[in-house]
User: Fold DNA-binding transcriptional regulator, AcrR family from Halolactibacillus halophilus.
Amino acid sequence: MDKKALQRKRMWQYFIDAAVDIIEEDGLEALTIRKVADLAGYTSSTAYNYFDDLSHMKFFAALKFTKPYIDDIPNYIHKQESNLKQWLGLWECFLKHSFQDPHIYYMVFIEDLGGTAKDLFKKYYAMYPEELVDVPGELKNILQEESFSKRSADFLSSSVSEGYLIEGDLEDLTEITHMIYVGALVHYLNHRRSWTKDEAISYVYSEVKNVVMRYVAPDKREAFQ
Assistant:
C-alpha cells in the first residue's frame, strides 16, 4: 500500500473509531457527521471526503458491532452435521446477536443506504481483514455478500448436492425466510409485538425451520428433524 492509500485508510479509521465511540456512549441514533468529525478532530467537510453520506458512516460503524457475531459463528458450525443443519446453526447464531443489538443489525441488513451495499461490505473488510481471520474459509466470501437471501442460497448450495433440497427452490426458500426475519425485527424494534428478546428469537427460528421443512426432500425429512 502506497503512502497516500495508507494515509487515507488511517483517516477513514479515525472517523470510524470516533463513530463507534459515539454509538457506545449515546446509541446509533445519536450519530451525526458533525459529532464524528468533532470527536476525530477534523471538520465535517473532511469527513465527507471519506464517506458519501451519514448512512454510509453509520453502516461502517455498525459493522464494527457485528464482530461478536462473526467470532461466534464457529461455535455453531459442526462439520459432522448436514449442510442444512449447519444453516440452521447459522440462523441460531445470527438471531442471538441480531436481537441483542437490533438497531445495529437493522442498519447493516435492512436500512436504506441509497443503493447497493456490496461495495461497502468489501471496503469494510478490506480495511479490517483481521475480523475474518477466524471465520471458516467457506464463509468468508458469503459474509461479504450484501444480499441476505444470497448469503443463504450460497451456503445452502451443498444441501442440493446432499439431496436435501432442489436447486430451483433455493430462491423461494431464502427469500421467504429472509422476509420472516425482516418482519419480526421491524415489529420488535417498533414494539408492535409484546415479545421479549428470547420470544422474538424463538418465533423467527421456529418459523424458519417450519418453512425449510416444506422444501426438504421427503426421504430426507426424518434425518433432518
User: Anything to note?
Assistant: DSSP finds 13 helices and no strands in the chain.
